[in-house]
Input
Amino acid sequence: MSSMVLKKKILGVLMDNITANKYPDLVDSTTIAEKLMLSETEVKRIISSMSRMGVIESDQDFRRSLITREGILWLQKTDPQSYN
Output
């Protein structure tokens, strides 16, 4: 899978967390890895990149993450059918 596809899939998991929960919490990288059938190492590598982009907030070892407003806007721009 391309890097862009993986980023969109991770943002999708984080977005689902927001839409499914009145008070969303941080999502564990293990949970993301299991949902996307990826290794946790791969997920953390991508989360690191996405954190630098500002589309997610993450702890310093990339274990727990939450989508940012910028991430929501980016996801809506790149996949408008899914999240409008």
